[in-house]
């Protein structure tokens, strides 16, 4: 039987494929992209660079947790802009967006500086930001229920990303919080690997949904020509 850790590493490596395909497609179709997918492209590029650096750190047996703190900040800013663009016509979101973005960024940085060392997991910031992503994705479905035709390519493509956000961050938040309980109970890393295997699977599904969304919207743009 293949060890769970090896399976997890394989899935993590495979996940790079949809990420790279998404970036290549976005660069190739950059002249036809809507603002929504410009934001997705910047988000994917930023998080991919941080993940690449984290892999290099790990391969050289260096503590890559400071990069997790930086990743959390990029992630928060990226999805905040994504939902700002998606909810472009919602007035209350327009009013609170910049104070919310600034306040969230300050809290993430402040958490690293004063509460959780950059050389430890940033549990507080991850839990809060993941909760925000989940709430935003749920609000998207409630807001569009009954008035958005998801058979239309543009709506379907955004809906797929939102579904990915809801699935991934809901599962990730559960795994993250449960792993804290296991760590507090001094559970061995070997006994925790199943949860991180599940997290890697969720990440792969998330990236496949993003890629599918990008292919749908770029194919629609090509047909218009």
Question: In terms of topology, how is this protein built?
Answer:
Blueprint lengths: L3 H25 L6 H25 L5 H22 L4 H25 L7 H22 L8 H32 L4 H36 L1
Helix pairs in contact: 1-2, 1-7, 2-3, 3-4, 3-5, 5-6, 6-7
Describe the model.
By secondary structure, the protein is an all-alpha fold. It contains seven helices and no strands. The longest helix has 36 residues, at 189-224. The radius of gyration is 18 Å and the shape is globular. The N and C termini lie far apart (52 Å).
Mean pLDDT: 90
| Percent range of helical residues | over 70%
Number of domains: 1
Largest sheet: none
Radius of gyration: 18 Å
Order of helices and strands: HHHHHHH
What descriptors fit this protein?
mainly alpha; 225 residues; 7 helices
A few lines on this structure:
The chain has 225 residues and is mostly helical. The protein contains seven helices and no strands.
């Amino acid at each position: 039987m293949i060890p769970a850790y090896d399976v997890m590493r394989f899935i993590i490596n495979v996940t790079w494929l949809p990420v790279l395909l998404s970036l290549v497609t976005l660069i190739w179709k950059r002249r036809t992209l809507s603002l929504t997918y410009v934001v997705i492209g910047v988000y994917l590029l930023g998080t991919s660079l941080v993940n690449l650096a984290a892999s290099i750190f790990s391969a050289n047996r260096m503590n890559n947790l400071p990069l997790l703190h930086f990743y959390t900040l990029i992630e928060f800013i990226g999805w905040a802009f994504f939902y700002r663009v998606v909810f472009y016509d919602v007035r209350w979101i327009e009013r609170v967006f910049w104070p919310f973005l600034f306040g969230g960024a300050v809290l993430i940085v402040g958490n690293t500086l004063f509460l959780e060392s950059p050389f430890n997991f940033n549990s507080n910031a991850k839990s809060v930001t993941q909760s925000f992503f989940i709430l935003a994705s749920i609000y998207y479905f409630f807001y569009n229920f009954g008035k958005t035709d998801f058979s239309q390519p543009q709506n379907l493509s955004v809906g797929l990303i939102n579904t990915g956000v809801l699935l991934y961050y809901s599962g990730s938040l559960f795994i993250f919080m449960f792993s804290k309980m296991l760590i507090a109970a001094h559970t061995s890393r070997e006994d925790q690997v199943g949860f991180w295997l599940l997290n890697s699977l969720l990440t792969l599904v998330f990236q496949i949904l993003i890629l599918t969304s990008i292919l749908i919207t770029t194919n629609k743009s090509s047909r218009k020509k």
